[in-house]
Amino acid sequence: LEQATTYLALNLLPEAALALDRAVRLFSESGQQYELGQAHYFIGLLALRRNDPGAAAIALAQAATQFASLANTYWQHRVAIAQAGLSMQIGKLDAALQLLAPLLEEVTSGDLAALQTWDLPTRIELKLLAIRVQLQRGDPARGDAADEIAHAVTECGHQRERDSDQDMPLARRPSSRVTSRLASRRAMSWRLSCSCLPRASASSTLT
Fold it and tell me: What ranges make up the beta strands (E) of 78-197?
């Protein structure tokens, strides 16, 4: 799965598809339900990247069902954001906002218990996607969008600096752990770029 997310981050889509197919088979056979949900989620993101909304909807629905059965709120949030991104991609902006509204309310509620189910990249991804949807709707209240994007990117940069400080002794850690952290960061960067930048057309790709 880590290999698949690295391929996604590098825009190596055929390689990502093969890795994810293998992951689904492995996790289905071994009964690893959490990892299977993650695999379906990333298959959904891959389908979005390939401009295949039908396949994306199916994969994300499978991921949503999987994480609901596991009562995993963090991954339910990530799936809902991806589903909102899908709605935006096919022009259903009101539906996208309906998916995002309860999530935005949760992250701004000040409820510490609720905030425990969010991490910084996911909160930024949520805010950036909401801005994109509102801009596409022509919402006049989005005149401060540039400031919000700049704030979100700055916040993410500060988090990366903290991560870098924590990773000073990486050379003394097991290589698998290092690979996992690097893959996660590449995937995070890709998630944020997809939320912030215009979606590529069917004949182009984001780098």
Answer: none
Kindly report, residue by residue over 106-119, the tens digit of the pLDDT.
888 877 777 788 88
Report whether 186 contacts 5 (CB < 8 A): yes
Rounded CA-CA distance 138/163 in Å is 37
Provide the residue type at 69 as one letter.
S
Lookup result for tokens 């991804």? 125
Residue type, 62: Q
Return the number of other C-beta atoms located less than 10 Å from residue 121's C-beta.
21
Distance separating alpha carbons of residues 58 and 122, to the nearest angstrom: 22
Q: Letter for the amino acid at 157?
A: G
pLDDT at 137: 87
Task: Give the C-alpha distances (Å, rounded to integers) separating 95 from 46, 59, 99, 118.
Answer: 21, 18, 6, 22
Number of Cβ atoms within 10 Å of the Cβ of 136 = 14
What would the pLDDT profile of 62-92 be if each residue is shown by its tens digit?
999 999 999 999 999 999 999 999 999 999 9
With b for 16 or more beta-carbon neighbours within 10 A and e for fewer, the 25-52 pattern comes to eebeeeeeeebbbbbbbbbbbbbbbbbe
Give the predicted TM-score (pTM) of the model: 0.74
DSSP state of 11: T
- Helix H or strand E encompassing 98: helix 93-107
Q: For the residues 85-102, what does the mean pLDDT come to?
A: 95
3-state secondary structure of 34: helix
The answer to whether 55 and 47 are in contact (CB under 8 A) is yes
